[in-house]
Design a protein that fits this description.
Blueprint (H helix, E strand, L loop, with lengths): L1 H8 L7 E5 L4 E4 L34 E6 L15 H10 L4 E3 L5 E3 L2 E7 L4 E6 L13 H13 L10 E8 L2 E6 L6 H5 L2 H4 L4 H6 L17 E7 L3 E6 L12 E6 L5
């Protein structure tokens, strides 16, 4: 089960090279219906390798998962980074969305632990789980959700996902209302895609004065990992958050390396 959770963490990687290093009215819905989403359409190559022998037991805390791909994020701003697999490989370790896909690809809860939707499908109210926090310890609030979705809707890379969005309203710190222009049957799927609907801290984002996502220090996680090292266009390293509020993996250290020559 734990290894299946790990695969879900890296679900955007089409071909993955993995090596374990020895050193390193409203109707309340309890489970959202499955919906289809479209991918980036990119075709990229990954290097082939063999994995080192797996140690006995499930404790991988002293090991590093090394993943190699023909691309890596050049910006960790979830609203401005390219809408590509190479970018998603990195950003989806760091950011969470209101909803998520489970290991069976069904839509389920994530930052939100409850939602209601009107019969016409045009108004959603998402309730934010009480223990959800950012990597800096701040509680995730409705204002952060409103800010993040509005930023995504205004993004040149992601605006096309938000044609149905009319506006958002903060009801209180734990509840945010989404009002649509029309019933979008893919709306929950959009809310389950961190590449489309990443949630970030409004106050932290604005404090970076336009430099958010450009350095390790200017990244604030809402997901299971923090970025700990970044060699531009070469590699990016991640450590699991000890304070993460959601499901965690038995992989505590991850390094993604860019393959510049796939030959």
């Amino acid at each position: 089960m734990k290894n299946r959770k790990l695969l879900a963490v890296l679900s955007m990687i089409l071909v993955l090279c993995m090596a374990f290093s020895a050193c390193g009215g409203q109707t309340t819905t309890t489970a959202a219906p499955e919906a289809q989403t479209t991918g980036s359409g990119e075709s990229q190559q990954a290097a082939e390798s063999t994995a080192a022998p797996t140690p006995s037991g499930d404790d991988f805390s002293d090991r590093v998962l090394n993943a190699a791909y023909s691309g890596i994020a050049d910006l960790m701003d979830p609203f401005l980074c390219m809408n590509s697999i190479a970018c998603s490989i990195c950003t989806e370790q760091v950011y969470s969305a209101l909803m998520k896909r489970d290991e069976n690809h069904a839509i389920t809860y994530n930052i939100a632990d409850e939602y209601t939707v009107t019969e016409d499908g045009k108004e959603y109210v998402f309730h934010i789980r009480e223990d959800a926090t950012f990597g800096n310890g701040d509680k995730i609030k409705a204002g952060d959700v409103k800010f993040s979705i509005e930023q995504s809707a205004a993004s040149p890379q992601r605006a096309h996902y938000y044609g149905a969005l009319d506006h958002l309203e903060v009801i209180d710190d734990s509840n945010v209302k989404v009002v649509l222009k029309y019933n979008d049957p893919l709306w929950l799927a959009r809310m389950a895609a961190p590449g489309t609907s990443s949630i970030t801290s409004e106050s932290f984002y604005n404090s970076c004065n336009g430099e958010y996502g450009k350095t390790v220090e200017n990244i604030c996680s809402s997901g299971p990992y923090n970025v700990t090292a970044w060699e531009y266009n070469v590699s990016m390293s991640f450590d699991a958050r000890e304070d993460f509020w959601g499901e965690t993996s038995n992989i505590k250290h991850l390094k993604i390396t860019n393959i510049t020559d796939t030959n």
